[in-house]
Design brief:
There is one protein chain. This protein is an alpha+beta fold. It has 3 domains: 101 residues; 63 residues; 196 residues, Alpha-Beta Complex (Aminoglycoside 3'-phosphotransferase, Chain: A, domain 2). Helix content is 41%, strand content 22%. The chain has 13 helices and 15 strands. Strand 7 and strand 8 form a beta hairpin. The protein starts with 16 loop residues before the first helix and ends with a helix.
Length: 408
Amino acid sequence: MSADAPPLTPDVAVPQRDALLDADAMAERLARLLGGHRPLAIESCRRERARYGVGSRLWVVYRVGVAGREHRVVAYTFADARAASALYAQARRAAPPANGMRPAVRDAELGAVVWTFPYDPGMPTLPALVDGREIVAYRPRRRAVVRCLDGAGAVAGYAKLFHDDRGAAVARLQEQLVARLDGDTILGVPRVLAFDPGRRTLLAEALPGPAGFALSGERLEWGVGRLGAALGRLHSLEPDALLPVCAPSERDVRDLLAPVVLLRPDARLDAAHLLAVLLDRLPRHRGPLAMTHGDVNENNAHVDGKRIALIDLDGLALRPAATDLGRVIAELRVDALRGRRDPDEVRALEGALLAGYASVRRLPGDEALRCHTALELAGVAARSLTRLSAKFARILPDVLGAAQEALG
C-alpha cells in the first residue's frame, strides 16, 4: 500500500494478495510466465488498478514495459481454486495465438490466471473494439470504454463494451431519457449513436463541455448549483418500470464497512461505532425512492451549455433521493481532507448544490441527507481498501471521522 498507511491484516483465504500487489517482484514472475521459451526483457512494471474482495478474490492490472512500449497485463486470483481453474480453462479455449507475449497463462504458485490485454476471457470482442483506439476505462472480465475519433481526429463518441446483456437495458433507458429530456434546459444525457447486441457494445456521443468540477471560482459554484438542479430534475422523472431497486439494506451497510473492520485494526473501533449508528438511523430516514444516477462524481457530470449532462448511466436505479446528493457532498468533504479544497469552499459548494436542487424539487429531509452522506463517506473508506488506494488509505481514519461528524 504505502509507507504512510498501516499494513493490511493478512488474508488467509487470499494469501497471495501481497505478492500480487508487489509490482517489482511481479516483474520477474511475469517475465517468466509471458515469455514462452525464454523470459521477456521487462524494463518496467507498475500497478495501474486493482480490485480486492476480502476473503474471495483479487485482480490487478499492471503496465509492463517491453521494448520501449507499455502493455497491460492482468493477474486474476480467487480464494476458491476451482474458480481459478474454470477461468483458466475458459481463457485457454479462447486465447489468440501468441504475439511476442503469451496471451493467457496460469501461475500455479499464486493460483492466478494471467492474460495480456487486449485479450480478455470475459469479453472476447475486446481486441476488435480496441484496435488502436485509446482506452478510457477497463475492468477485467466486466467492461471497457474506448474513445472513438472521426476522420479529422476529433472525438466523436465513446464505445462501452459490456461482458453481459446489461448494455441492452442501458441503451434502452438512455434512449428513453434522451427523448424525455429533448429541449430540457436543466438536464441532459448523451445520445445513443448505436448499440450492437452481438458485440454487447454501446456507442454514445461525446459531450463538448468540461466536467463540472473542472471549473474554478464562481464558475465552479455555478456548475455545482446546476448539478444540484440536474439531480433534482432526474429525481423528478417518472421512473422506468424495469429499474432495479437499490435501497441500502442492513446487509449492504454491514458488507460496506466489513473491509475496514477486517483489514485495518487501527480503525476497527471507529468503523464498528459508525456501523452501529448507521444501522440504527438509516432505516428510519431513507426518504422516498427516486430514479437516481448512483455514481455522481467529478468525471460524470459535464457542462452542456446552461445545463448539466450526466454520463455513465449504467447505475440508474431506484434509490433514496438523498443518495446522489450524499455522494456529491461526500466527495467534496473528502477533497477537503485531502487538501484539494479549503473548508469554506466546500461549505459554499454544498450550499450551491442544495440550493440548485431545491430550485427544482423539494430537498430530502435533513436526517436523510446526513445518513446518506455518512454512508457515502463510509463507502470512500471501504473503497480505499478494496481498490487498494494508498492516497485514500492514509486518510481512512479522517474519513470515518467525517462520516461520524456528518451524522451529528
